[in-house]
Amino acid sequence: MTEQISTSTPTHWARRFFPIWTAQALSLLGSQLVQFALIWWLTQTTGSAIVLTTASLAGLLPQVLLGPLLGTLVDRWNRRIIMIIADAVSALSIVVLAVLFALGMAEYWHIYMLMFVRSVAGGFHWPAMQASTSLMVPKEHLARIQGLNQMLWGGLSIVSAPLGALLLAWLPMQGILAIDVVTAAIAITPLFFIAIPQPERIINGQAAKTSVWQEFKEGLAYVWGWPGLLLICAMATVINFLLNPAFSLMPILVTKHFNGQAIQLATMESFWGIGMILGGLALSAWGGFKRRITTTLVGLLGMGAGCLAMGLLPSSAFTLAVATMFWLGFVNPIVNGPLMAAVQAAVAPEMQGRVFTIIQSVAAGMSPLGLIIAGPVAEYLGAQSWFVIGGVVTVLMGIVGLFIPAIMHFEDGRAGQPTAEPEAEPLKTDLQYT
Q1: Which residues 6+ apart lie within 8 Å of 276 measured at CB?
Q2: How far apart are CA 94 and CA 114, in angstroms?
Q3: Are residue 119 and residue 254 in the same domain, yes or no?
Q4: What is the arithmetic mean of pLDDT over 303-326?
Q5: Structural domain tally of the chain?
Q6: Are 28 and 165 found together in one domain?
Q7: Which of the two residues, 305 and 152, has the higher pLDDT score?
Q8: CA 134, CA 113: separation in Å to the nearest integer?
Q9: Rounded distance, CA 112 to CA 61, Å?
Q10: How far apart, in whole angstroms, are the C-alpha atoms of residue 319 and residue 76?
Q11: Long-range contact pairs involving 99-104 (C-beta distance under 8 Å, separation at least 24)
């Protein structure tokens, strides 16, 4: 029994890909504005840390618990249709909440429901978009596209909070929610007109017919049977376990260690965002080393060194802390962009929905555990201790990874299952990554 993968990269790929990417970027901005506005409304209305934590869990748990199942469905269904429906469902949930706010009937549990629904929709949309990207973009440009993605997130981290605060002063809540509906409509529009390649699984000349449960188990077996991919999942899990809690302690680090106030915290976060933009821009222009995984591991060394420096800085060195935060923002795309591009290039197209969601679920699932442990550790040893721990472990992972063949040769493909390589079209001078 043999399996063939039917994929094709459209000619003039950039003209097809970037309208979708740009529309999705606008939709992300709308979503970030709504996220800020709703969290601020919960803070002002309830003043309860439990309410805020519950809202965060409502947005996190669906993708952690359902991620691999959603990824299985993404691999079975048409990815373009999935993105259209996911955006539409998300927009419809916003419309319902906007009506509740307009009628003065909005309750905090309504926001829980909204975040749950949007999380499920995002659990479909994100792997569908990532898997579609690998079929629309030639392999040698995937790292540049991921650099653009990282630059986008950096820009959003800078502008979404102040813009959201400004809009809250000008508009009622339903007005801000309407912005997200409009941007979702913009995101959907190009999907109606631009074809997205769909991998076709053919076994013995016929379309494969398997159950959802069979394909779910197939996805787990695919990851488990690929040592390099399994090690990358483990590394992502450790990083999320250590570094996410470290950065969640940033307010404590600023106030208790550097004796700062809100303006100092805002400065740190702004320089992180600026660093991400410049790091993403550098990656999109450079593209990284020939082996993308080498770029990621070198980035890990830089990230670990930055975290270690942050944890060792004296309380009088706030200016150096800001510079360190900029550096951490800069190397973040150098770590994440090539890694995502490597997975897109190496993993078989018809498996990418499952692989992306498995990595996301396992890695994100460790963040709550890290937060639970980091709190008491920071109370006894200080917030900077968690940066030292995370920095040392991250540096060690970067060094050790360079000497593990399964990781270094990850992009060569899974043994016995060579990856499909889209035919590349040379970049045209009139299509820039800026």
Answers
A1: 150, 151, 153, 154, 155, 157, 329, 330, 332, 333
A2: 7
A3: no
A4: 94
A5: 2
A6: yes
A7: 305
A8: 32
A9: 12
A10: 51
A11: 99/174, 101/172, 101/173, 101/174, 101/177, 102/172, 102/174
**Is 252 a domain residue?**
yes
Neighbours of 315 (CB within 10 A): 12
Say whether both 158 and 297 belong to one domain.
no
Q: Any residues with CB less than 8 A from the CB of 350 and at least 6 apart, and which?
A: 5, 75, 199, 201
Helix axes 108-136, 352-381, angle to 10 degrees: 130
| Lowest-pLDDT range of 113-122, 252-261, 304-313 | 252-261
Average pLDDT, the chain: 80
Encode pLDDT of 91-106 as tens digits: 999 999 999 998 888 8
In a domain, 7, yes or no: no
The CA-based diameter of the chain, rounded to the nearest angstrom, is 69
Which of 272-281, 316-325, 362-371 has the highest average model confidence (pLDDT)?
316-325
- Examine the domain organization and report whether 145 and 269 are in the same domain: no
5 by Cβ neighbours in 10 Å (0-12 / 13-18 / 19+) ranks as middle
Domain that holds residue 180: 16-197
pLDDT score at 262: 63
Give me 221's structure tokens: 């077996």
Structure tokens given for 112: 């829980």
- What amino acid is encoded at 305 in this protein? A
Q: 149 and 224, same structural domain? A: no
Domain of 63, CATH number, reads 1.20.1250.20
Query: How many residues are there in the chain?
Result: 434
Residue 331, CA distances (Å) to 147, 280, 298, 328, 351 in order: 11, 9, 9, 5, 29
